[in-house]
Amino acid sequence: MRTPQLTDEERRLLKDYKANAPHKLVVKKAEALLLLSRDVAPEIVAEFVDREPSTLHDWVIDWHQQRMASLYTGHAGNLNRSFLTEGQREAVTVVLSQPPGDEYLPAQFWDVPKLDHWLSTTFNIEYASNSSYHFLLRMAGLSFHKPEKFDRRRADEKAIDLRVKEIREELTGPLGEENTLVFAADEVRIDQEAVVRKAWYKKNTKTVLKVDRKTASQSFIGFLNQNTGDCTTLRLDWQNSATILEAVQMLVGLNPGKKIVIVWDNASWHKNKLIQAELASGQSLQDVHLINFPPYAPDHNPIEHVWNDAKNAISNVQRDVFDSTVAAFEAHIGSRVFDYKI
Hints:
The protein contains twelve helices and five strands. The chain is an alpha/beta fold. The protein folds into two domains: 132 residues, no CATH class; 178 residues, Ribonuclease H-like superfamily/Ribonuclease H (Nucleotidyltransferase, domain 5). A five-stranded mixed β-sheet has the order 3-2-1-4-5, sandwiched between helices. α11 crosses α12. The radius of gyration is 29 Å and the shape is elongated. About 4% of the residues have low confidence.
């Protein structure tokens, strides 16, 4: 079998295919060509890619005849990236690293129609399969995942970063004081409703599940200790001024003789007259100091990670009784120490 001779550029492209190609066959071809080019025995390569040596022989012949195009020869969804010159490939990578423009989505988003339009108008190239465009997107370092949602009223990121920096500087003293506890706090609600999914059972038969179709919910407030990582979780009948005041008073009661600093968001019930009155000297919250995060910036509150962690832990288990879900949520948080800091 003739050893495939690869240029440095071809070797780099084959490594890209090996790591990111959307089809297993293309990955195997890339792996085989890379190994064979290093004079690895064809029998070993054939065993590695799970193909017959005769198949490898055909792949090598195709390689010498078509070079990079041979990886997709006869394959559905033919990418045939060799249509793009080296300069065009570099242009694709540069363009995909930037926003698609004001005429498209107003953020760092690309999708197949946008890429298809750009390739067609720029290089007069069109691909038959979406997987071909997916490969180009991955080649440029993009990944397919859900973006984070932020409120439109959110302040400029520089202003938010400045405010968070100020908060951290303000906390430097309290975090070092033995008699002071610093908490990151927030509310959360968990909901449960029976969801029926498809399952495998005998054809032409019916299976009936008895479920409780009533939606149940429970609100909590959590206080994440920034020194110890422990999280105190309290149930709330509702999220309003009275219940939040009661929860903070309970936190004070759980930590007698301690000064308490609470950092939380700008919800109306965090800064209403009822709570402000209790902060006065001689009142129940006289040893409590409240600090607000920047408006509409929940991503800077570390307790959000605690909520997500606990929700993920209970999300895939359907419990017959909602109280069991609530108990599991509380147990998950109460049994762990969280290293999430402001």
